[in-house]
Specification:
The protein is α/β, with parallel strands linked by helices. It has helices at about 10-20, 25-40, 60-75, 100-110, 130-145, 175-185; strands at about 1-5, 45-50, 80-85, 110-115, 150-155, 160-165, 170-175. The chain is built from six helices and seven strands, in the order E-H-H-E-H-E-H-E-H-E-E-E-H. Pfam families: Glyco_hydro_18 (PF00704).
Length: about 180
């Protein structure tokens, strides 16, 4: 099961929804109980929490949510993974990276799903979705921040970007579209 805060009218609304969930013990408890009910009803083996674009002030509350969620669902024999933005610790880090405490999240969860994609993206110049050097730098960063190798899960892009360098924009391209381009050219 995947839970995220991305498909609201705006990124700001998704950020506020997450903040409301993280606000205090009561809201976290209700959220966790709702997740447990859903997981048990549909017999999910685990859950991936993919809350992005959090307020920096929610950093510790997010880590606390993952601890409480893991404590609850691990007792049910289920796993918790957390999606985190790729972080290299340098200028190539995702701008949302500081919101995630890799060390605490690695302690509290069963795995960190590091989103190693979109190194170049529609706001940057063209390039590989995830270069080898950048991906390796994200792994080194995670290891440096006490994430055990057994808890590192790499998110791999199943898509790409089609850059129009004349217009200066990029179009999302699905795997199917990319394979069509490959066959055509």
């Amino acid at each position: 099961m995947v839970v995220h805060n991305l498909f609201y009218e705006t990124l700001e609304k998704g950020k506020q929804v997450a903040s409301n969930v993280l606000a205090n013990d009561k809201t976290r408890d209700v959220f966790i109980q709702n997740l447990r009910n859903e997981m048990n009803q549909f017999k999910y083996d685990g859950i991936n929490i993919d809350m992005e674009n959090l307020y920096l002030t929610d950093r510790d509350s997010f880590s606390q949510l993952i601890k409480e969620l893991s404590d609850a669902v691990n007792r049910d024999g289920k796993v918790v993974t957390v999606s985190v933005p790729a972080n290299t610790g340098d200028s190539r880090a995702n701008p949302w990276s500081p919101w995630f405490d890799y060390e605490k999240l690695a302690i509290f969860s069963d795995g960190l799903m590091i989103m190693t994609y979109d190194e170049p993206n529609p706001r940057t110049k063209p390039g590989s979705t995830a270069s080898v050097d950048w991906t390796e730098a994200t792994i080194r960063y995670a290891l440096k921040h006490e994430v055990p190798p057994s808890k590192i899960l790499l998110g791999i892009a199943g898509y790409g970007w089609d850059w129009d360098t004349t217009a200066g924009d990029a179009k999302y391209s699905s795997y199917e579209e990319l394979m069509g381009q490959k066959a055509k050219y």
